[in-house]
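Researcher: Please generate the 3D structure of the following complex. Treat every line as part of one assembly.
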Amino acid sequence: MSASTSDVVVTGLGATTPLGGDVASTWEALLAGRSGVSRITDEWVKEFPAQLVARLATEPSEQIDRVRARRLDRSQQVAVVAAEQAWAESGAADAGVDPERIAVVFGTGIGGALTLLGQDDVLEEKGPKRVSPFTIPMLMPNGPAAAVGLAIGAKGGVHAPVSACASGAEAIRWGLDLLRLDRADIVLVGGAEACVHPLPMAGFAAMRAMSTRNDEPERASRPFDKGRDGFVLGEGAAALVLERADSAAARGARVHARLAGAGATADGYDLVAPHPEGEGAGRAITAALRDAGLTPADVGHVNAHATSTPVGDTAEASAIRNSLGEHVLVSATKSQTGHLLGAAGALESVFAILALREQVVPATANLDDPDDDAAVQALDIVRDEPRKAELRAAVNDSFGFGGHNIALVFTTA
Amino acid sequence: MTATDSRDTVSRTTTSTPSGVVVPSEREDPTLASTQEIQAGLGEILEEVAGVAPADATPEKSFTDDLDVDSLSMVEIATAVEDKFGVAIPDDQLANIKTVGDAISFIESNQG
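Model: Done. Output below.
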């Protein structure tokens, strides 16, 4: 793990999540074991089998001004909130970086669903002339990336990977590539999602992908547990500032961790079902390790994708066991945050980075009775309370409908 | 009274002005709004849509150059004007409305 000029480091973090309106409050709530999940009380939910949601802890309206917010979809609002936090923390705005060397890669799984569906209501009820002129820029899936690019004045390219629940992690991988290829000097990356609305809820429920443990909201998201019955939809965003190690050092930036490598694969198996042994997921982890020049023994922690679906969690457990072995400490933080879809990979990368920085592994909530699956039984899944550990490298893996697999390897600063 | 003359007298009266200021589009026989009522109503729209302080929404101000109102916001303003004053602004006319005063004049001469 020797330093070279092509090393990429993380110099800023931002987030707005069901656990907190920023990184510090989110991390504190995570370690304290708090849940961001609650039961929806709106009238529309009555006929829904799955009635749980992990809503933002802090409304974006408390963080960005009204006039700015009204022309941004909620997915763009959370993107901007997280991105501006990360950007401010990095100090990059004062570093005199040429705007043409600043890039943005920001993903989303669903895009501006609330705008799309809300304006469809307007169309049906009031006609085409009443549809907002901001409809298209608010619903387009590159909307969060574009809003972030505008917010920080990035002129070196603004990109928007769309790979369902791998989008946030894929954005981080693209950012790494841009820096390695010298396409930019600083890249703000992340993911955003805000699609709590009857239609996405109904669609996921129709796939039987969501937990129906409506009477126990805080116990509903239970990755790797025998009693798991689906994910809980969450909303929020997370952002990271990436730059090359040499330029970060030259400007005296605080380095949270190194982004040492990334791997991307596709299952080539089924549109939505994971390969039963997580074959593509395991290949992504192996590819990321190779990219980072590390071996499985170097990796001490995995922040797992683990959404709490019956088939997904066991497939991932096999992938982790097959690619890394049984020594890694595994956390499934969606047990507290819910599933932030296109923001998940970014948020969980923030958690992996903080675990490295603080040398503590978050616990997996609600893991009362681990699944009988051999890989789940074999893995050391941290539960009950966070565990202190000497960590040199941590992996975040993220998977998306479509068979997308992304693995990222972070190492200590 | 010209539009310019009226600006100081209406800037703080928008909330307390009687119902005549707001003329719902569905109203069958709208009461014609006075110049100052139009300016006040337009000010409310500009504040809602673009965050323009009411005191800044004076007739000589250019939407794009002075008030930072972009073309998409102008479309929203036109829709809101139709709701408030019952005056539709065709696209070819909207392009000619450069200042707050232009908008007031258009509404004034096309209402009723």
